[in-house]
Amino acid sequence: MMMWLLVALLVLIIVVLLVLGTWAFQTANRLDRLHVRYDLSWQSLDAALARRAVVARAVAADAYPGTPEGRHLSALADAAERAPRPAREQAENELSAALSTVDTARLPAALVAEMADAEARVLLARRFHNDAVRDTLALRERTMVRALRLGGHAPAPTYFEIAERAPESAATAPRISARVVLIDPEGEVLLLCGSDPAAGADARRWWFTIGGQVLDGEELAHAAVREMAEETGLRADVGALIGPVWRRDSMIDFNGSVMRSREFYFVCRTARFEPTMDGRTALEHRYIHGHRWCDAAAMAALEAAGEAVYPLQLPELLTAAAAVADAGTAVGEPTVIR
């Protein structure tokens, strides 16, 4: 009897060690991938900051040729480019402050657009970088990960915080979009799968809700209904939409350009259906690759596989969105989400 107990205990210990070893191996691999993502995000941010420094020197030469202001702006751009990593934030913040005082009326339209694009790319790259930092730290700081030292000797990633400058102008005003969270009777939302057509066949894929740009003079709800019909074939009355319930501001790097986007989200209940592609534009045929109905667990699985879901808070907000759709009314101003 004692022998059997010892054997059972030994088997249990072996099973526990195998499970722990498998978990540790998988977690270490995931952590390694997150560190690679962090390194790549810093490289992208560093490149965006370097490009902004080049544009800043062009602005100094064009707007303030031979003046102390121009020399000061050029010097700040040089200092930001040469600054070591620990001093980079301060140097870039000083450059941001100087760029914010530039009188764009003194610049040609092409250079104004170039400056706006450089600022937008820095904004986008910084947010991607800080997202990578957040995700890596979240895993590194788990108790078991720290106890087993799965992070190895790699230094902990650090956030990069600088002032964001995004003036409202013709070049940088946000693109207004109306989007629809279509929810079926099972509480699942219809998502489309897309990728950046400018990035080629190996582009990273993401998932997003139905919707698109609001046309000049078009009301939000009418734009949402139109986009829904174009992208899915589903024709609904404006009265079937509830909202907008959410608002999301973001930077989008898509098809070779960076834009600010302001999205307003409606919710709508519908029977499950198979979307059609007949109403989609030529561009939509290029970048939309499929669709699926997802609950929160399915969206979490997509994210775990490296395919982002937008808006980022959709999994946690889906139940509340279904409740709003069932109630038939939205309360108050749209909630700002990520």
UniProtKB/TrEMBL annotation:
- An example Gene Ontology molecular-function term: hydrolase activity
The entry's keywords: Hydrolase, Magnesium
Which branch of life, at top level?
Bacteria
Q: Which cofactor does it need?
A: Mg(2+)
**InterPro entries per record:** NUDIX_hydrolase-like_dom_sf, NUDIX_hydrolase_CS, NUDIX_hydrolase_dom
Keyword Magnesium assigned to the entry: answer is: yes
Statement: the UniProt record of this protein carries the keyword Magnesium = yes
Q: Which Pfam families match?
A: NUDIX
Start and end of every Nudix hydrolase domain? 173-316
* Coiled-coil stretches noted in the UniProt entry, renumbered to this chain: none
Protein name in the entry: NUDIX domain-containing protein
Q: Which organism is it from?
A: Mycolicibacterium brumae
